[in-house]
Amino acid sequence: MVSTLALSSLIGLSACSDQSVVVGGLHEVATLRSIQNRNLDLLFVIDDSPSTADKQVSLANAFPQMIDVLSQIDGGLPNLHIGVVTSDMGTSVSDGSAPAPAIGQIGAGGCAGAGKDGKLQRIAEMTDVFLSDVDGPGGTRERNYTGELRDTFGALARVGAGGCGFEQPLAAMKRALTNPLNAGFLRPTANLAVVFLADEDDCSARSTTLFGPENPELGALQSFRCFQHGVTCAQSSATVGSKSDCVASEDSPHVAGTDAYVDALLAAKLDPRMLMTAAIVGDPTPVSVELRTPPGGGTPAPSLAHSCAYDGASGVEVADPAVRLAGFLGAFEGRATLTSICSADLANPLHLIGASAKKLMGDPCLDSKQLADASVELPGVQPSCEVADIRDSAPDRATVLPACGAGGADCYAIVADAAACPATQDHLRVRIERSTATAEDSWTYVRCQLAN
Questions:
Q1: Structural domain of residue 378, as residue ranges?
Q2: For 29, what's the count of Cα atoms within 13 Å in the CB-facing half-sphere?
Q3: Is the pTM of this model over 0.85?
Q4: pLDDT tens track for 31-62
Q5: 419 — alpha (psi -120 to 50), left (phi > 0) or beta?
Q6: Is the peptide bond before 286 cis (omega within 30 degrees of 0)?
Q7: Integer Cα distance of 187 and 274 in angstroms
Q8: Do 294 and 243 reside in the same domain of the chain?
């Protein structure tokens, strides 16, 4: 039995899903589209620079964890478009200039032209530049690839490890969203999730000067330039020692700020509630600069110290602090998942990302550990909640749904559903029953009393 508390007032309730609302002792615990949107476009931006091969394998091996979580939504696996691009944007820049001259050995970390230019990657098992796996008639699935989804994606995710060592994942994401060769991947009404995998931070270039020869301002032609000119800390980025309060530089003449890429992603959707971001990257802290001998020998030079390490299949694997990428995700508060790449097993990061994507599409599950128990004499948690529909076009007016059994055309119930909510203690979920038409711009808000 579920006890329902009437709200004293609905005025001031925002339609924004990332705000916590307290009205009449109730707290917002879930927000769902009143009409479920089962369409999800998944864009993976994968670092293909040297040292990433093992990390790509770990991503491929853990991908089934994400699919298993997504399959828990009502109706099963959502209607998926999955695309993969790499961080290799060559020596292209954001200020409109032509790419800088090629640097390094192409295919072994060197950079040239526009690199892979944000083009969706393709393997032989695919008939398009993205994987499509959507509902078909009679409970079937319509696919544009052969084999199982987890296996095909596993092969697609292994994008190689010879790409540009000046990784530009944010620039690659932005280009992927507009490159005409990727037509058909983005669906206007689909939710969009962007997932980054990288063992170094973003180095999206503003100017071709970033790729210029060694000079007193830029130092040696190596990726330390990305940190020195792309990150601002309380201490000088150029000097040896620990750093604090590090953030992306927005006014560097060499490395682009992250704000423009936040804007580019927001522009991909009319409604930011249809967006989520995730990153499997080097721990953003600690941040430190050390002297390190270059791979080919020579005089030790300032280098960004690794922020984490782990034992991989080929020995010790490392990653650098992803300050810029973490800051980018911070712009999507409530719709971002930041996890560490420093593990040979990425099952937990992929599980968390799947859970975030599930929430993006409308996760009806409730964490009973957070909820007050209104009937302690009964087993399990009996929450006190209220459920209301609110239209974006009328945010100050709400339609409160009665509990099922209390009368009303539309109603709600809080029930145990282990299949939909296997990860929570009591497997509680909100189930909405409707017999009337619901407006397209309607969202359903669930507010409950929280445990002390």
A1: 3-34+364-448
A2: 27
A3: yes
A4: 999 999 999 999 999 999 999 999 999 999 99
A5: alpha
A6: yes
A7: 12
A8: yes
